[in-house]
# Entry
Amino acid sequence: MNSVFSPFVKSLLVAMLAVSATASADEHKSAPAAPKIDPAKGASLYTDGDNARGLPACVSCHGAGGNSTISVNPKLAGQHEGYLYKQLVNFTTADRNQPVMTTYAKMLTDEEKHNVAAWLVTQSQKPGAAKNKDTIELGKKIYRGGIAEKNVPACASCHGASGAGIPVQYPRLSGQHQDYTVAQLGLFKAGTRKSVEMATIAKRMSDEEMKAVADYVAGLK
# Structure
């Protein structure tokens, strides 16, 4: 029996292997190629924009090297690459709608988003400073220990003791402008900026508590 069926079995195995190889090749061809990230191109786009497409330079709002001098515009220098890329993507969806950034983010290709983020993470952030001595202790208490009676967790539990954050998931907060941080907490509270976690936390905080913690993190290093 073996001598009768061996040629058949052998042919069947060969055919199966050929089909498997073809399927594997087709799958490989259909898989999107990973973007080739080029921080140098990101630097050029950030600094000069793209006049041909009417894309303005990021530097005009976010400052040289990502160090914004406008308190309502965030400092981007040294922010986590994955987080920056994710926010640029979010601006093109319902997760984060902001008239200026949504318009510009939609003009960027996926590769350009990666390039800009890859360059900004290499830049050094200029330190900030807490300005309100009357609320510094309240801000410190909230950041490090939360607000137990309101079930507000410590900010440090996600953003780290020094405000360094966790790549992709949680942004670096240290040194960030007070006005920008307060504004974002307000957007989370209103549900305008989408995050179930941050919306829940922000809704439990008063305006005074938001301002206090924002001032405190501005001075973290």
